[in-house]
Amino acid sequence: MLDRVERLGYTTRSADPADRRKVVIRITPKATRKATKIYGPIALDGQRDVLSRYSPAEIQDARIKSTRCTSHSGELVHLRLRPRLNSQAIATAANNTSTVTDLA
């Protein structure tokens, strides 16, 4: 099946540079365009259906909260990746992440 999809120009195969036993399969722009043409209208209908339940103010509020959550999760990931932070930096980060409770 993968051979057929590749022959149609929807995927490409290449060797994994980190592990020569693996093959990396990637979708092509042609496949992306076709999927968007087929599934795009379905996704838009679903999005309109869901969003129609909320006022513009509620949607904007949700966007703001989502942005805050994303920002805070990035800070937490940074802390986990740097285990040797001194106690002052950890305390500062803990105080900054406490604003997540403002999202409720």
Name the features.
flat, two-stranded antiparallel sheet, 63% helix, 104 residues, mainly alpha, 2 domains, 10% strand, disordered C terminus
What does this structure look like?
With 104 residues, this protein is mainly alpha-helical. Helices cover 63% and strands 10% of the residues. The protein has two domains: 2-51, no CATH class; 56-103. It has helices at 2-7, 29-51, 56-81, 87-97, and strands at residues 11-15, 23-27. α3 (56-81) runs antiparallel to α4 (87-97). It starts with a helix and ends in a 7-residue tail after the last helix. Residues 97-104 have low confidence and may be disordered.
Name the overall outline: flat
Rg calculated over all Cα atoms:
22 Å
**What order do the SSEs take from the amino end to the carboxyl end, as H and E?**
HEEHHH
Q: Report how far apart the termini are.
A: 48 Å
The SS-based structural class is mainly alpha
The helix fraction, in percent, is: 55-70%
- Overall tally of structural domains: 2
What is the count of helical runs? 4
Largest beta sheet: strand ordering: 1-2
Query: What is the overall pLDDT average?
Result: 79
Count of DSSP strands: 2
The proportion of residues in beta strands is 5-15%
Unreliable spans are 97-104
- Major sheet size, sense and barrel closure: 2 strands, antiparallel
